[in-house]
């Protein structure tokens, strides 16, 4: 899997989240695709929705119309995907694909993309074919970011699904000294990134009371390369989607963008 070199062109300032502007049109030969994986839930692709091929993110010159948002593997899309890609383009200089890139795990095109995003994997139920393909992808250099699942039940299900993929591996809490927290931004604390409702309207930032602490887990290969990063008890996707809403606190959107960009740069350089 060919990894594209990362060109960092822009000086980042502490207040960048409040100065977000429309991204320029990207290069026709993108450096990066924000790839979202469609996975099996309860024997099917569930209620997830693929964005129409004709859709173009407003951040890259498209209209303001957004297709109806799905749930499950397509939660927060296309808003989160578009906002995050716009931020990546402006803040790192990467030329990004201007639309959400949604593919099934079993799609052979998966191997073209060094980074893939999985959302709400608490409901994931991988088929044998999906598990085998995901294993091959990871062992050949791929990287997965799993986000937005809460509580011990959803965590246990995700661990069970990963055992189908990498039975010889286990999730471990990543120390803040890990390289992934320092590839671009220095992340020196883990804070809970809540969904839009708690972020904008108050209330607890956790969603399931049996485990309220945010943690970031990882699964690594024999050489120590991080293959899977897990933002457990946090919702980075909502923070990407609502980053320019006045009601959503900057401390959450800022953390979500910093973490997300670190993950992407790590994936593209390892």
Description of the structure:
This protein is an alpha/beta fold. The protein has a single domain, classed as 3-Layer(aba) Sandwich (Rossmann fold). The chain contains six helices and seven strands. The protein has helices at residues 79-92, 128-139, 151-165, 196-201, 236-241, 250-269; strands at 35-38, 101-104, 115-119, 143-147, 172-173, 215-220, 226-232. The strands form two sheets. It has a five-stranded mixed β-sheet. Helix 2 (128-139) packs across helix 3 (151-165). The protein is globular, with a radius of gyration of 17 Å. Mean pLDDT is 84; it is low at 2-26.
What is the CATH architecture annotation?
3-Layer(aba) Sandwich
CATH superfamily: Domain of unknown function DUF4159
Q: Please bin the fraction of helical residues.
A: 25-40%
Strand content: 5-15%
- Global mean pLDDT: 84
Total of DSSP H or I helical runs spanning 4+ residues: 6
Low-pLDDT runs of 5+ residues are 2-26
Shape: globular
Q: At the first level of CATH, what is the class?
A: Alpha Beta
**CATH topology-level name:** Rossmann fold
Biggest sheet details:
5 strands, mixed
Alpha carbon gap, first and last residue: 11 Å
**Number of self-contained structural domains:** 1
Radius of gyration: 17 Å
How are the strands ordered across the major sheet? 3-4-7-6-5
Structural class: alpha/beta
Number of strands: 7
Order of helices and strands: EHEEHEHEHEEHH
Strand and helix map with partners:
Elements: E1 35-38, H1 79-92, E2 101-104, E3 115-119, H2 128-139, E4 143-147, H3 151-165, E5 172-173, H4 196-201, E6 215-220, E7 226-232, H5 236-241, H6 250-269
Parallel strand pairs: 1-2, 3-4, 4-7
Antiparallel strand pairs: 5-6, 6-7
